[in-house]
Amino acid sequence: MNRSILDKLISYVGLALAAVLLIAGILMTTASGFIKGQVHDQLASQRITMPSGPALDALGNAEDKAALEPYAGQMMSNGDQAKAFADNYILNHMNKSSGGKTYEEVSGEFMRLPDKTTEEARQMGELRQSLFMGNTLRGMLLNAYAFGTMGKIAGTAAIVAYVGAAILALLAFLGFRHSRQTT
After folding, report:
1. Tens-digit pLDDT profile for residues 72-107
2. Rounded to the nearest 10 degrees, how much is the dihedral formed by the CA atoms of 84, 87, 90, 91?
3. How many structural domains comprise the chain?
4. Domain of 99?
5. Are the CB atoms for 146 and 79 separated by under 8 Å?
6. Is 156 helix (H, G, I), strand (E, B) or coil?
7. How far apart are CA 78 and CA 68, in angstroms?
8. Is residue 182 within 8 Å of residue 5, measured between CB atoms?
9. What is the 3-state secondary structure (H, E, C) of 122-136?
10. Membrane-spanning residues where (predicted)?
């Protein structure tokens, strides 16, 4: 096979791959923007203000406080804030109110109570309800975090695809140029 023909063939394949990567980059950029916008809009519509000042000091856990401090006083609008709020604020309050017991454990204890009309049963029922609501909110916020993370990954993958497309296009150009110089 003629070297010039081989150079052209390889260059056309490189151009085709560059086009595929370019299209993939565009799709991933679109997905990243859509996800970021949806996460922002859904969280911002809840008007959750990240804890600050006394609310942070009341946590009593330096690790939780450190995770929330970068967002203190901000309106929640991204997945990282949602994760910090879910794992370091809501969970902190849930653990304090239940003595570290999960919803499942408290619910099991409540269901085993023979008389649900006692003061103990009423308090345990309220704790059970509070833990259920806390778990539900945590789940929704952690979903926002997961989608936000997927958006970041798609954005990074888009950049990699654009760089790959540019490199392949450059190599294809050089291949075509070389095919003209080769007999």
Report:
1. 999 999 999 999 999 999 999 999 999 999 999 999
2. -160
3. 1
4. 3-181
5. yes
6. helix
7. 13
8. no
9. HHHHHHHHHHHHHHH
10. 12-35, 153-176
